[in-house]
Write a structure and sequence with these properties.
The protein is α/β, with parallel strands linked by helices. The protein is built from twelve helices and eight strands. 44% of the residues lie in helices and 14% in strands.
């Protein structure tokens, strides 16, 4: 493996995928003095980030290499897991040089990460995985970054990691694969927390005789209660902005794989995860009849991650008919 010679405090770095996460991360780094490039097939998306300090953008990852002036060259992926990630890596590797660094900041199965790292190592290219949490609030507040990488790759990336993260919000958690494994478990815990809050608030919501103001309850619980959290702060915001009946929000909750991978890993390692497993099963249930728990989780996911909500299911003369809605993505 070719060694890395770190540059100055400001890196040259490109982001492949300039959506709600990648775009915000690219802008945050540009605001802090890094030279940032971007690749995204959407001309509208590219134009938007160029107006916020991104040095240059191109339609495909293959074209990024020609934009760099010096090294080390860092290519940061923020695209969906699976074939799209593999395709982007293939495009980058076609013009990459030994010593370049590819970072996968999206959600990926850590087993795929280990495979990709081994394939790239044969060409002298460093691969790092960065579990990323913070949602749409990361641009303003910073992100929590869980990095799996060789020590020299982490050292080269650290100036960018420090500027992306909240204070103390990044760490070298282990070798390649450790970042995505840690983020997978993080998301599994998130599934369980969301489900527990949803069940509690459905019970509160059912007590019509008390006419409870759920926004007031969440605000109260965040003042010294043992269940206080950022998710509970977002619940208060959801109740305030959406109304506690969540009218117009369907309870169809997506899962992008991290929860499934966590449960599968628990089976492989014989580690019991009853709460997380049931939370995953409830996401499958949400795609059937509507429930208040599902609406609650859909509303909170929109608050912290900008995940789109679908229109609530409406009664129709045609059995099973629903209001047409667009797709949505998950953490």
């Amino acid at each position: 493996m070719v060694g890395i010679t770190p540059g100055g405090s400001g890196l040259e770095i490109s982001f492949i995928g300039l959506g709600r996460m990648g775009g915000n991360m690219a802008v945050r780094l540009a605001e802090r003095g890094h030279t940032v490039y971007g690749a995204d097939p959407s001309a509208e998306t590219r134009e938007l980030v160029e107006g916020q300090g991104i040095a240059a953008t191109v339609p495909t990852a293959r074209e990024l290499s020609g934009l760099y002036k010096s090294g080390p060259r860092v290519f940061w992926l923020m695209v969906p897991a699976g074939p799209i990630t593999d395709g982007a890596i293939t495009e980058i590797a076609a013009n990459a040089k030994p010593g370049d660094i590819i970072v996968d900041g999206g959600n990926a199965n850590y087993k795929d990460t280990l495979r990709r790292a081994k394939e790239l190592e044969a060409h002298g290219i460093h691969y790092a995985d960065c579990g990323t949490s913070g949602g749409v609030w990361g641009l303003k507040n910073g992100y929590c970054l869980m990095v799996g990488a060789a020590p020299e790759a982490f050292a080269a990336l650290e100036p960018a990691l420090k500027d992306l993260a909240t204070d103390g919000g990044y760490a070298h958690v282990g070798p390649v694969g450790a970042g995505h494994f840690t983020k997978m478990v993080h998301n599994g815990i998130e599934y369980g927390l969301l489900q527990a809050y949803a069940e509690g608030f459905e019970l509160l919501h059912s007590a019509k005789e008390f006419d409870l103001d759920l926004a007031k309850v969440t605000a109260l619980w965040n003042k010294g209660s043992v269940v206080r959290s950022w998710l509970l702060e977002l619940a208060e915001r959801a109740f305030t902005t959406e109304g506690q009946e969540f009218e117009g929000i369907a309870d169809d909750i997506a899962d992008n794989g991290t929860g499934r991978w966590t449960v599968e890993e628990s089976v492989d390692r014989a580690v019991p995860l009853p709460v997380i497993t049931l939370a995953l099963q409830m996401r499958f249930r949400s795609r059937q009849d509507e429930s208040y728990q599902g609406q609650f989780i859909a509303a909170l996911r929109n608050q912290f991650g900008g995940h789109a909500t679908t229109a609530a299911k409406q009664e129709s003369s045609s059995p099973g008919a629903t209001v047409p809605s667009g797709g949505k993505k998950d953490l």
